[in-house]
Each structure stands twice: as structure tokens, then as C-alpha cells.
Amino acid sequence: MANPTRTALQQCLASLESAEHGVAFASGLGAVSTIMHLLNPGDRTVLIADVYGGVYRMTSQVYEPKGYVFDYLPAADFDDLATHLDERTRIVWIETPSNPLLNIVDIEKAAEAAHAAGALLVVDNTFATPYLQRPLEFGRTSSCTRRPSISADTRTSSAASPRRTIRRSPNAFVPPEVPWGRPEPVGLLARAAGNQDARCTHAPALQNAHALSGFLERHPRVEQTLYPGLPRHPGHAIAAKQMHDFGGMISFLAESEEEATAFVASTKIFKLAESLGGVESLIELPARMTHASTADAPFAARGT
Question: What is the pLDDT of residue 45?
Fold first, then answer.
């Protein structure tokens, strides 16, 4: 149930997030399922509409059939979040920037609305990492996925305790030693957390993202470039307020799904693969890869 190696990792992650406590899980979806165990059938969760595909698969295929209620709200509607919450709402779940459409949600305003309704705010911070954005500093929101990431109101020990108890039951914790590969050994995670800026959000990588997003925005074959660092992005002002930089993730819309499929298969520098923890430049087609489970959802972006 406890070991000093995992404790060191959790303390490291907590310090990165400006939190008093951290809880390490074996996977991002392990963290998600543990949070879902805080709910009872009939409880309502409001999520950002373009939520990560793995989360949508879990909510729509695992928990919804058991009587849990999930409503998916477009990012623009979070400006008026309070009107979408009711007495059954127990969790408000946001990603900012979202995966893969890079929508931005004002964390501070979301926290105020959620807490006023008596709900818990969960912030998936995967794309930004604590290096670029620390949700707790804007709305009392903290925990982990591939890059240190998922945050959920755990500033105090009383809030963190139920999550620790639930984690023990479904065996979602990180073991002190795991096979080489993914998930990474705890020792490697702790070491990597100290240099995540060099691996994921180092200045040259951010500069590359800025330059590439500008190139894509001007390209005649690109229908739309989705990057919060671009002034015309609808969430640019909020992102500038709550992020230290705009990150190294870029999405863009091709002319068609067929065009997007051909493009991701033909790049030379960018490898066709899914990962957020390496140093390689990668490219993917969410509709057929990370977000295949959302292909029939009304918010699916088939040409991204």
C-alpha cells in the first residue's frame, strides 16, 4: 500500500503542481477511474465536449450504462458554466488546452462556478504540464498521467484521503518496480519529472511550435490551425493569462479525412505515433487513433 520510492515521486509531483499532496497512479485512466469511484449512479458530471477519447470511452461505455449521467459542454459554453450546473452535478471535468482541438477554458472561472454548485473541479493538464500551467494556482485543483497532468481538488489531506482509499481497492497505484517500458519505472518517472522542461516544453520546442503554427495558418491547403498561441484563437487571451507559454501541441484541419490520412502517412520528420512522453516529433490522426472511440460523437473532428 505504500513504499518510499512512490512517496518520493508523489512529493515531487505535488511540488511541481504547487500542491500539498500528490497521488501517483499506474496510468492516466487509472486516475480517471479512481475519480469516477467518487460518484454514485444518478450523479451528474459535466465534461468539456472534446474530452480525451479514452475518457469518453470510459464515461460512455462503462459508467453511463450503470446509471451515471454525463453531459458534454462545448468549450465556448464554459463562459456561462453556472447556468449548466444543477443540484445533481458532482464533477466538472475540463481539459485546457483540450485534446485534440486545443480549446481553452478559464480555470479560475470554472472553479468558481463548480464550487458554488458544490461540485468538484477536475482539470486534465496533460497538454500543458505543470511547467506551463498549474491549475491549483487558479482554482484549488492536482495528480498525474503520461506527463504530470490530471488535477482534481486535492490541496488538503482531507480531500486527498478518499482518493488514496479508493486507489487501494482497485489496485490503481504505481508499483515500486515495473517492467521496462510503459508505464515507466517509478525511479525514472521521478528523475524525468525534474527535467520535463527539456523533454517536453523546452524553449526551442516552444519556438518550433510558434513557427509551425504560423506556417500552417498561412498555408492554403490548411482549413484551420488550432493553437492557442495564435492571436485569432478564441482562447488566446485566457491562455496568455493562465499559461506560461502556449505549449508544443498543434492541431489543424485538413480539407478532408482522406487528405488528413494521406498527410500523416507521408511526413518524414514527424513519425506517425501516439505518445506525450518522448522527445520525438510525432503526428497522428485522432479520429482513427487516440479518439477513435469518439468517431460517432457530434463533436468529433474527423479531419484533424
Answer: 98
